[in-house]
Amino acid sequence: MADLERLMGKYASVLSLIGQLGVRLQNLHIQDNKLFIKGHAKTRADSNRVWDQIKLVNPSYIQDLTAELTYDANVPASPPLAYEAANRTYTVKVGDTLSKIAKRYYGDSSLYRRIFEANRRVLRDPDDIQVGQVLRIPEVANG
Question: Within a domain: residue 67?
Answer without folding.
Answer: yes
